[in-house]
Amino acid sequence: MRLRFSIIGLLGFTIGAGALLPDGRSHANLPPTSTIPKLDGAALFSDKIRNGTVLPPYDTVYHFDQLIDHNNPSLGTFKQRFWHTYEFYEPGGPIVFMTPGEVNAEGYTGYLSNSTINGLIAQQEKGAVVLLEHRFFGLSNPYPDLSGTSMSVHTIQQSIEDIDYFARNVELPMPNGKSLDPDNAAWIMTGGSYPGALTSYTMVNKPGLIWAGYASSGPVQVMENFWVYFEPIRKNMPQNCSADVVAVIAHLDQVFSSTNTSAKQAIKDTFGMGSVQHDDDFLGALRNDLWAWQELQPTSGPGARFYNFCDALEVKNGMNAPVSGWGLDHALAAWGKHWRSGLASLCGRATDEQCFDSYAISAPNISIDQPYRSWNWILCNEFGFSQVCSIA
Question: Do 1 and 249 form a contact (C-beta atoms < 8 A)?
Fold first, then answer.
């Protein structure tokens, strides 16, 4: 399964651009972040009383004085946001800790509740729960902008040091909250996706800090050339859908490797992208339908975006395609029709060129609270994970 596109354009110019698309990306050839699902705590909170004290709502914001640079403490501190509850806590219980990772943490305060593994562990083990916003995301910023100079202290190691410094120095807003550091209480760290990897990294890098970790889907193996990202999708999606998608991609590879400009234009027109200048921008954009795979949860079923994509290709006149699919001609036309129907929701007010152009050099928007800018800084400098075509 192959997709041809320009990773040079992707990595070279996406850091500087600000949000343009409805989902926050600067263009549709930028991979979406694979964050944990949002869970707002406001709807989950009801008046809670602990030992005669009315507890604050889950969305109550607290601030911790975090070091700007753990290699140079003389630079001072910044305000790092955190959220907390001790509704289940009893003396001797653990501190259940997580960061939601590469997002503004405001929409994740529900992870303090017992509707999540964090709160369930706290309820079972009689612990408190803490949610810490990651540096350079949301409003937890060492500097007032996201310039390259500011983000020189935006590294995975600095994030690990944040966790260590926080755990050892925070005064939690609860009885005896100043004496619940890792020397006096068991800290349990949880996380999924990047926060899952960060859980593993922290436990290895800071032995003795975290008593236990619960990591889900953590990409702990760093890969610069991450073409295998698409392999689990190809192997585990509905077989008829996989067969037809592979057939279409093979056809696109053949046509766009040729000099047949009229055939290329006809295919672009089929997808409603006739005005897209760069062939690799057109081809790379089609990954958006495959990227929808990472949105799936154990509870996902009919109506999920990825399954709607497959249904568009594999359901014809009320009948499902056989395992082998309907074949290239139908699949190409059906994919084009499905793609055209979703262009408005994908691109919003952006023109086709704005929506898909990975070549444009724009003036950098360095204002804070741009998760894609902050996340791609980490990808470009440390993780890689470039979702390029197969090397074979």
Answer: yes
Q: Within 13 A of 46's CA, how many CA atoms are on the CB side?
A: 1
Amino acid present at 29? N
Q: What SS3 state is found at 103?
A: coil
Q: What does DSSP assign to residue 286?
A: T
Helix (H, G, I), strand (E, B) or coil at 189: strand
What is the rounded CA–CA span in Å between residue 32 and residue 53?
A: 42
From CA 2, how far away is CA 17, in angstroms rounded? Answer: 27
Helix (H) or strand (E) holding 246: helix 239-256
The model carries a pTM of: 0.88
Query: Domain locations in the chain?
Result: 7-16+230-364, 42-192
CATH of domain 42-192: 3.40.50.1820
Six-digit token pair at 79? 């305000």
- pLDDT, tens only, 289-301: 999 998 888 888 8
E strand or H helix that includes residue 132:
strand 128-132
Residue carrying structure tokens 């800790």 = 97
